[in-house]
Amino acid sequence: MVKTKISITINEKTLQGIDSIIDNVYIRNRSQAIEHLAKNALGENKSAIILLGGSEDNLKISRNEYRPTAATKNSTLIELGIRKLRENGFKTIFIVARHNLLTRLFEMLKDGSDYGVKITYIEEKHSYGTADSIKLLKGRINTNFLVVYGDIIFNKISIDELWNDHVKQSAIATIMLTTSSQPSEKGTVRVEGNKVLTFTQKPKKSDIYLVFSPIFVAEPQIFEYSGNSLEFNVFPQLAEKGLLNGHLSSEKEIHIHSKKDLEKLK
Fold this sequence. Notes:
The chain is of the alpha/beta class and 266 residues long. It has eight helices and 13 strands.
């Protein structure tokens, strides 16, 4: 690709923000930093990961049916998710799952062309948590990306608002936040403005009702952080370093864990 040399005038504070994303690994200089931010702002090369790793038995709602392939009205959970992502400009989609579920999804979705996207299937042979699952994408994604857990319906969530919020801030990840009356079952956060100060997964007791909704945007640098679990390891590390932001959503995702959850939708 031919590149053009330009000269620009920019204020000192903005320049400091640009310099702050230079990590000498993925982004090595100001030119790469400016190009990275411009591409993100323009929505070029938007990629999303649908996370369905872990035990396949845990992702079943019946003996022969998985949560993401479960029918709801005239569609399935996975198809609803892909259409929502496509509407928001995500044309490159990676699905992480184990063999049997991945096979079922491929039979249903093929290469994604019928949905206006390109789907790449990533087989997870084993993992000890969500961080292990997304690290399978290391080297395949070189710009910021969206992650959504594959057993939820998120049609009412404003993905664009989350994405744009992340692009404007300096953080390794920006997580969607909602409220919950049962915070001990979620990842709870303390925030100051957009900055997440602490992230605690499933605390025994909590008087904080602001929780992690399983959708977030991240930079590829997140692959470098240690720990098997995003919720137990990576997010707490990022919060401690001041590198985790939160985006409060007025709408909530819908979790599908059983046939009863599907019946409620109907």
